Amino acid sequence: MTPKEVLALCRKKNVKAIDFRFTDILGTWHHITLPYDALTEDTFDEGIGFDGSSIPGWQAIEQSDLLAVPQPETARVDAFAKLPTLSLICNIQDPLTREDYERDPRSIAQKACNYLLATGIADTAYFGPEAEFFVFDDVKFDSLSRSSYYELDSREAHWNCGREELPNLGHKLEHNSGYSPASPADSLIDLRNEMMQALIDCGLDVECHHHEVASCGQCEIDLKYQPLVQMADGMMAYKYIVRNVANQNGKTATFMPKPIFGENGSGMHTHFSLWKDEKPLFAGTGYAGLSDTALHAIAGILRHAPALLAITNPTTNSYKRLVPGYEAPVNLAYSQRNRSVACRIPMYSPNPKSKRIEFRCPDPTANPYTAFSAILLAAIDGIQSKLDPGEPLDANAYEQTDAEIPVTPGSLAHALVALQKDHDFLLRGDVFSESLINDWITSKRVEVDAIRVRPHPHEFKLYYGS
């Protein structure tokens, strides 16, 4: 879509407001709203100024001026604003040099794609994330010096079998038995249908949706794969739509990986493939129908996985999901079909165009722009260095008690140490900067310490009477 076509769309839809959206380094959308008359074709070149010092992890106050430059191909009508509103995702630029801002996640993703092209390995990286999320009916939490608690509720959860609901109609889901049951046990089908339609209405290609394993409102809606930047744009819209549809229906959606103890956590299994001249590069005659290029890519991802997870699993809560069991992909190995390993090769179709790698570790708290870029850079390193992924692990890794299988970091703190030691692969092509990585590690260690120094409610149960 060109700027002229965007303006025509605004007139057709009787748009009254324009929402400029951009993503901070943590993966949170921010927005600035303009009246429709303020948008001209020149705006797509000139952008609008804003205060970058107020965005987490961005400019210092003495260099705070930044430009938000709208990208016409991202134009979508906002389904949730009362006043007819068009949203435009922006690239962030320095107002003096007009260079892309090095801490703009979307610019990082574009640089990753440009670097891939410069290597000559491929011209397109496709990504297809499967983001899971929970929908709750009620959420309460607080963290004070004298108290700390959270309380979540889902009407379909097993703990509500005996609740007085006037009437309670039963059809609750048993513990970890929520994978794809039919209604009325699946009480969220209408909500997911509404989410699906909202995603389709804003131009996203939905493949399917279903209830996930956790019994208390866990859901998944899958989007069809897209090139890296477009898919990251789509994931930002996906999270926005899921949250707002839930909110409009008196519910709340969260992408927190492990909100419920004892139930499966929410991942973002990320399917990934490389193409060149419209031909898939991962199909071949090797293991699971893979090419040498694909096997080298797997080896790169596995080698750098401990460091990668500091970006693809960026919260302390992420590592409460990455524990053995609950289908958690903690084993740094690869396999066809086996879901207990970090890299799986789906075997649903023999079509070469379907051949891909599924990196199962990431979760949906990740910033999609930086997460997909980091995965791509790890794969490129594996391909350029012709790394060997070793033998596949086709057995159940949880039953291999005698095997020494490397595993994912046990905490965000461990992942940050790995990133500090292993990040040269992220610097290639100037995709990530050294200062950004150092600041990311510093800021995330603040989160680690915030959890480390606070008493945990369960510690009172364990130790109060000691």
How do you describe this structure in short?
The protein is of the alpha+beta class and 466 residues long. 31% of the residues lie in helices and 22% in strands.
Describe the protein in words:
This protein is an alpha+beta fold. It folds into two domains: 3-101, Glutamine synthetase, N-terminal domain (Ubiquitin-like (UB roll)), CATH 3.10.20.70; 124-463, Creatine Kinase, Chain A, domain 2. 31% of the residues lie in helices and 22% in strands. The chain contains twelve helices and 18 strands. Strands 7, 10, 11, 12, 13, 14, 15, 16, 17 and 18 form a ten-stranded mixed beta sheet that branches. A hairpin with a 5-residue loop joins strand 1 (17-23) and strand 2 (29-35). Helix 6 (292-312) packs antiparallel against helix 8. The mean pLDDT is 94.
